[in-house]
Specification:
With 89 residues, the chain is an all-alpha fold. The chain has a domain of 60 residues. Helix content is 65%, strand content 0%. The protein contains two helices and no strands. Helix 1 packs across helix 2. The longest helix has 40 residues.
């Protein structure tokens, strides 16, 4: 049986990594939540075969594109992020 020895430097390095990951999560958490909100809304739109118009959609078969697409997606995501930042810390 091998014993694993963890030295002080490894512990400090692990702490540094965890602090960075936590910081990154705090920075991106609103964006992550916005993604999930849009994804759920898009599932509902897809269920009813609804596609939100956007100037960047291709002509023809939009069934190959997401229900929320292009500029509309970006605008919606940014607005959701702003609401989350305003109301959730």
């Amino acid at each position: 049986m091998h014993k694993h020895v963890i030295d002080r430097a490894s512990i400090e390095k692990t702490k540094e990594i965890l602090i960075k990951v936590n910081s990154l999560y705090k920075e991106k958490k609103h964006e992550i939540v916005a993604y999930y909100i849009i994804n759920e809304f898009e599932k509902l739109l897809n269920e009813f075969d609804i596609y939100i118009p956007d100037i960047y959609r291709t002509k023809g078969n939009i069934k190959n594109e997401a229900c929320i697409y292009g500029h509309v997606y970006t605008h919606l995501k940014n607005n959701i992020i702003n609401v989350l930042k305003k109301h959730l810390q």
